[in-house]
Amino acid sequence: MPDTLLEKLWRDHVVASLSSEVDLLRVDTHYFTDLHSSALDELARSKRALRKPEQTYAIPDHVVSSKPGRTGGEAQWSAVHLSRMKAGAAKWGMRYFDVNDSEMGIAHVLGPELGLTLPGKLVVCGDSHTCTHGALGALAFGIGASEVIHVLATQTIVARRSPQMRITLDGALRPGVAAKDLVLFILAHIGVRGAAGHALEFAGPAIAALSVEERMTLCNMGVEMGARIAAVAPDDKTIAYVRGRKHAPQGADFEAAVQQWRELVSDADAHFAQDLRLDAGQVVPSITWGINPSQSAPLTGRVPELPSDPAQADELRRAFAYMGLTPGQPIAGTKVDRVFIGSCTNGRLSDLQAAAAVLKGRRVAPHVEAWVVPGSMQVKAAAEAQGLDRVFAAAGFQWREPGCSLCVGANGEIIAPGARSVSTSNRNFIGRQGPGARTHLASPAVAAECAIAGVIAAPVQDASDASALSARQAADQVRVKRITPSTPSLRATLPSSRR
Length: 499
What we know:
Radius of gyration: 22 Å
CATH superfamily: Aconitase, domain 3
Shape: globular
């Protein structure tokens, strides 16, 4: 039978079929992050051992401080997580990326850059944005707390098969349009449940044109579309990205692996439960205005008017009330208090380069507090070697240490209640960046421009394109068929932890 990419990856990892829909899968790589450190205590209580320490990587990222000169975390709970993880790593022989280790970083940044994530691997982590690793042609998904314990003890995972979905992006992105804009465009079309319960593949010429780091941004936010799994088939760009990385195969082993990786594509006649095509040429620089990632608008556009449907109107009223916006107002010109460039979505070197290009020779508005938090120590070192840290400092940004930081308030670094933040992270949920914080998601270039302007604004080179296309994009949204998951009950298979 013809298979999709993700069906091939799944099949290659089946240890045993437990039912017609559930399999026991072999896990290749487990990124064990700090918020699940209590799983080590459970191992000890149940008198079980760590099954595969050489395939388990202990990574503090959520609770660590990004403050220059840090030694741990600023929050009270940080020391508990960090000390427990460090002791557990020493006991069981895991590789532990200590707070100031030269290879430390966010799990979804350091894994690919070190070659720990490879095409064809099954990667799990107690974090829903583990789907990021699918950008390299890996089978990757987030797991819940009890599943973390199961993987530690067995190096396997019990998982339910998902219906397959493909989103094909035809055409090409216009100049000045970023991968983050593409994500927001897709979310505006299909909504936060458009891929619910599905294994999602991104394909098409616009995806092939993206860099591997841009594909990571795209797959990172697949979970925001409701998908548990998101992936892009490996190609020449993937192979070039992986070649020579520290933990990737070397020499003849690498060439042998490449031959296997080239087979990781969906067969021409593979079946998808949902198959959607969109025109990448319609994407414009955008920003979210509401309280979920699908609530976005072109930077030259307006927030929506209240719809006639009472239920939809109530939902939008809640978003307007929390965000301090009014129906129909222009999104541009809205005052900004904080800007955050970083996270597992947009904290890679290419993201920092895009922001620095906007900032060079300019200065952050006096009332704006702006941070740059590299996604890893290696990203930080590479950026400093290029002088990007000096560009950010000259513009008035704080240059900070790697970690999740302001993406999520798990480390004591939060936005003040009522303050408005433009963030390159992945979620704008109520309270995500702190109680009462108002979050707008955007690309690194847009975030940088907002810091300079002190209000929501488009980078100058993008404004004309956005204005010309915003009306066409709005019309296109009306014509595109909405997607209804073929098996809504599979929504229950999403991990309990959606951090």
